[in-house]
Amino acid sequence: MRLSGIALIVLASMAVTIFAADPTPVVIPRTEQFDVKSKNGLEYRIFVAAPTGKAPDAGYPVIYLSDGNGNFPTVHSAARRLSMNDLSAVVVGIGYPTDETKVHNERRSFDLTPPTSAEWLKTLPKGAPIGKTGGSNEFLAFIEGELKPLIEHKYTIDRKRQTLFGHSFGGLFALHVLFSKPDAFQTYVASSPSIWWNDRSVLTEEKAFAEKFAGKAVNARVLVSVGGWEQQAGVKVSKERAEMLRDRRMVDNAKELAARLEKSAVKGLTVAFREFAEEDHGSVVLPAASRGVRFALESP
Q1: Is 230 one of the catalytic residues?
Q2: CA 88 to chain centre
Q3: Which residues of the chain are modeled with pLDDT < 70?
Q4: Domain span including residue 185
Q5: Of the listed 230, 264, 279, 290, which one is catalytic?
Q6: 271 in a domain, yes or no?
Q7: Given 76, 104, 176, 281, the catalytic residue
Q8: Residue 263 belongs to some domain of the structure
């Protein structure tokens, strides 16, 4: 039943006045969003939350995250809860100006993946929401050359405390940035990274990174996390999905990657790994964001 005007409802002898004229959208306090167009003509929706107090002399830490349409509220909430009163960092979500799931999936598939073999793409299940791929370097160039200067113009940012957070394809992108341009950020949070993508081609980048920086100092910290149910589901799933989970080896891939990085000869690289029990690929975003933000804010 639709109410209009003012309705009076009596509950357990308590009079409650409900103002029910045209409900309005819920808004996250002290946040903003705006759309920008990259030099390459791609449109992005940027979500921002910032502390309200006076910035420290060195500036605020900043957390950039991909998949901003879905992940910004989660990461923002984690940052607010982990701060004493006000936010302790500027939180910047990078998303897309669309509510259409298909368009959103196609955009992120391009932005967050490396160039991908056409033959390998044929191995994906039919109907997989994958469009054009291979835009990760272009996306990084947008963040570095266009978005960061914009954020730094609006807010006082500590360039020595920049974090990149990504989940799934976003976690794969975070690893790509670490391996290809480790000085772009000081902290990397790779939540459930899609290491399986393109026949695990990101491991070739890992090997090149380890060889290039062997014996050299890299000022970077990386947290790799994954859900315990991402390789073997703890609930009943279809035979096809169970096989897919086994083939993708999400848990083993993440664990093995973190172990190799920890043992590498790269100096100054801090590595942490966290497996969240009884969490699948979707639900793990919540604890991964909480632990990831804590990891970011712990940085000196």
Answers
A1: yes
A2: 18
A3: 1-21, 299-300
A4: 42-298
A5: 230
A6: yes
A7: 281
A8: yes
